[in-house]
């Protein structure tokens, strides 16, 4: 007897499932508030070299002091990273003159002065992560995603070994602790370490929330569950913009985005362990207790007491799979059989491409002609129509076609903005919005799609592996911005190429529309 048959008898989508999804979606709001925090945590305001002995120029305006102390760039703005070794008073007579002797231009010698009109402080202004240290600023996002990458492998294995709920609780507690330690950082090294550990902890939340919800709902409501969970990511996206707007000091911003983890920890006590996992691990009586609770809440009081016998039969099927795999299952098991091997290789490429292109666009909030806060909020709003459209598309044209074409179209939009001239700002903004929508649609689909591709006994291992590939893409995405020093359009070309190629690979995956969740390897092969 399949688990879906058990769900049909107790109610595959009733009050019980709605309660679980509400609590899990609340927890999911925490994710984008940390995953996209780099946009505000490490924001670099306009700056210029600190000018020594500025009190000597009391008769000059600030504009005139800058004119004689800071060289201009070709576009007429003052340089952010260079200064004159001696004041150039002759520029007061003719400000259009350029310094003829380049030897008098040097790098900043006395630190920097920052514009604090938008940010009270960021890690860039705290530790001068600008100019030659710009790479360290971008690296903070990479450190975080390296942590998420490591956490994906750890939590994927542990949640299959020790249970979904236990690991989800551990993830939230560690996220709260390391998030608060990040806020208390007194050095860049401390921040880098604690942000990496926060990434490890949050990876469990990212990895477990959707599969735990999916394992409690019937086939007909899997798509709805995936889309609903994804919409709360967008809600977190918008809340991040609000939090960053209200809290302009980076220490307290970290506290503000980490605090909601405490509420999630409290609410999680009402979420039961996955009955699918309990049966697969032979804990039939515990699974039966949760299923009876589900039946009562859903008004199915006629739930048969002999159902426990059916669960024992289900357990025997899964244990046979367990023995066929040599008595254990791990990440290596994802590559042991031909069909599962193909699924794992292709889905890994797709997840890398989805995350790489998504974070490449999400961490570039310029080009809208809006403030950074409004741009972040608009990006969150844009995602919701894209998710609603995917709710229809994945049920009409299927998961595979939806996954492939959303990725390809996202890449096309990125590529289009490379060739559209800068003066066409409105057109570029429309294309960027379309690309962001397609990118988010691809991310929404990949979570739903992947959770349906792997069998129950390997689902969290599969999600852990694919999440590892995604976080690898997320870790590399911020560093690609540094390629603009080689060629201004090279970052966009890279994002475009990866998105289109990974979209093409998605065509190699099997369709899962209206197919029961596989329980064991035999269901896949």
Automatic annotation (TrEMBL):
<feature type="transmembrane region" description="Helical">
    <location>
        <begin position="139"/>
        <end position="158"/>
    </location>
</feature>
<keyword id="KW-0812">Transmembrane</keyword>
<keyword id="KW-1133">Transmembrane helix</keyword>
<feature type="transmembrane region" description="Helical">
    <location>
        <begin position="224"/>
        <end position="246"/>
    </location>
</feature>
<dbReference type="GO" id="GO:0015132">
    <property type="term" value="F:prostaglandin transmembrane transporter activity"/>
</dbReference>
<feature type="transmembrane region" description="Helical">
    <location>
        <begin position="373"/>
        <end position="393"/>
    </location>
</feature>
<keyword id="KW-0472">Membrane</keyword>
<keyword id="KW-1003">Cell membrane</keyword>
<dbReference type="InterPro" id="IPR005828">
    <property type="entry name" value="MFS_sugar_transport-like"/>
</dbReference>
<comment type="similarity">
    <text>Belongs to the major facilitator (TC 2.A.1) superfamily. Organic cation transporter (TC 2.A.1.19) family.</text>
</comment>
<feature type="domain" description="Major facilitator superfamily (MFS) profile">
    <location>
        <begin position="87"/>
        <end position="514"/>
    </location>
</feature>
<keyword id="KW-0813">Transport</keyword>
<feature type="transmembrane region" description="Helical">
    <location>
        <begin position="197"/>
        <end position="217"/>
    </location>
</feature>
<protein>
    <recommendedName>
        <fullName>Solute carrier family 22 member 7</fullName>
    </recommendedName>
</protein>
<dbReference type="GO" id="GO:0016324">
    <property type="term" value="C:apical plasma membrane"/>
</dbReference>
<keyword id="KW-0406">Ion transport</keyword>
<feature type="transmembrane region" description="Helical">
    <location>
        <begin position="252"/>
        <end position="271"/>
    </location>
</feature>
<feature type="transmembrane region" description="Helical">
    <location>
        <begin position="12"/>
        <end position="31"/>
    </location>
</feature>
<feature type="transmembrane region" description="Helical">
    <location>
        <begin position="170"/>
        <end position="191"/>
    </location>
</feature>
<dbReference type="InterPro" id="IPR020846">
    <property type="entry name" value="MFS_dom"/>
</dbReference>
<dbReference type="Pfam" id="PF00083">
    <property type="entry name" value="Sugar_tr"/>
</dbReference>
<dbReference type="InterPro" id="IPR036259">
    <property type="entry name" value="MFS_trans_sf"/>
</dbReference>
<dbReference type="GO" id="GO:0008514">
    <property type="term" value="F:organic anion transmembrane transporter activity"/>
</dbReference>
<dbReference type="GO" id="GO:0016323">
    <property type="term" value="C:basolateral plasma membrane"/>
</dbReference>
<feature type="transmembrane region" description="Helical">
    <location>
        <begin position="343"/>
        <end position="361"/>
    </location>
</feature>
<dbReference type="GO" id="GO:0006811">
    <property type="term" value="P:monoatomic ion transport"/>
</dbReference>
